Amino acid sequence: MKSMTGFAYREVQENNFSLSVEIRSYNSRFLEIYVNLPPWLSTLETAVREYIASRCVRGKIEVSLRLREHNAPVKVAVNQEAVRAYGEAIQKVADILQIDEKPSLAMILGMEGVLEIERNRDAIRQEGTLHPSGPEHSPGSSYWDQIEPVLKNAVDDFDAERVREGRHTQEDILSHIAILESSLKTVSSFAPQIESSIKENLKSRFAEVLGNQIDENRILAETAVLLMKYTISEELSRLSSHLAEFRAETERNPSPGKKLDFLCQEINREINTIGSKTPILEVSRAVVDMKNSLENVREQLRNVE
Q: Taking the CA of residue 134 as centre, how many other CA atoms within 13 Å lie in the half-sphere pointing to its CB?
C-alpha cells in the first residue's frame, strides 16, 4: 500500500552542468502529471510523463527538472541593422535637442537585439559530458541519457517515501478493520436473540388479541414473514465477506485504493441495514462503533494510491 503524497529531490553536479529533479504529489482521484522543464528541453516532456505514469497509479504529481550548463560554447552575433538603426535614432534625438554628444558603446550594447547570443548545446554534448545518444534521436533526446538516471533515482526515493507513509496508513486502517470485525462478532452473537425476540413479541400480540384461542400455524406463518423482513443473517454474511476481501486486497494489491473505496461503500450499506433492523441496544451500540471505525477507514483511504 502506497500513500498518494510524497516528496523527493535529487541533484548532480558535473564539470560542465548541474541537474536537479524535484517531485511532489498530492491526493487525487485520478493520475494527474504536471511536468516543468526548461523550454529547450520541451521535447523530453513526453518521456518524463510516460516514465512517471509507469511508476504511479493515482495522485496529482508535479515534476520539476532544472538543467544548467556551465561552460557551453556561446556564439555571439552582431545585428548590424539594429546597430545602425539605434545609432541613427540616438543621433536624431541629439540633433533635436541640439546636443553635441555621440552615443557610447555601452549605450548601444545595452539596446535590445544588438547582440544575438546562442548557446551551442550540441557542441558541449559532443565534448563528452552531455553526449548524444545517436543521430536517430530528436533534438533534446541526447540529454535523456544524463537525465534518465537522475529521474529514476528521484522516483525511487519518491516511491520509498510513499511506501513508508503507506505502511503507517495501512497499519491504522487495519486496526479499524479489526474493530469492525470485533463488532461484527458482537452483532452475530445477538442474531439468535433477535429472532427469538421477534417470535416472542408476535406471540404476545396474538395473545392480547385472541386470548387463549391462538392458532399456532398462524403464528408460525407470521413469524416466518417477519423473520424474512427483520433477520440480519444475510447482512452478517455479506459484511463478513466484505471485511475478508478488504484484508486480502491490502495484501495482494500494491495500489488497492479504488477497490477499497468500493468495498467501504458495500460495508457501509450492510452496517446501515443491520442498524435499521435490530431493536437490541447492544447491537445498536456495536453498529455505532462500526460506523465510526468505517469513517476513519474512509478518511485514510483518501490518501491511498
A: 2
Q: C-alpha grid cell for residue 16?
A: 560542465
φ, ψ of residue 159 in degrees (nearest 5):
-65, -45
C-beta neighbour count of 274 within 10 angstroms: 22
* pLDDT value of residue 126: 40
Q: How many CB atoms lie within 10 A of CB 73?
A: 13
How many angstroms separate the CA atoms of 58 and 204, rounded? 58
The structure's pTM equals 0.67
* Strand duo 115-119 + 17-26: pairing: unpaired
Are 131 and 142 spatial neighbours (Cβ–Cβ below 8 Å)? yes
Q: Which residue has the cell 462478532?
A: 185
List, run by run, the mean pLDDT of 10-residue segments along the chain (305 residues).
94 85 93 92 91 94 88 76 86 84 81 75 41 40 82 96 94 95 92 72 65 62 64 89 95 91 95 85 91 95 91
In the numeric block, which cell numbers belong to residue 294? 468505517
Q: Is 96 exposed, middle or buried (0-12, 13-18, 19+ CB in 10 A)?
A: exposed
SS3 25: strand
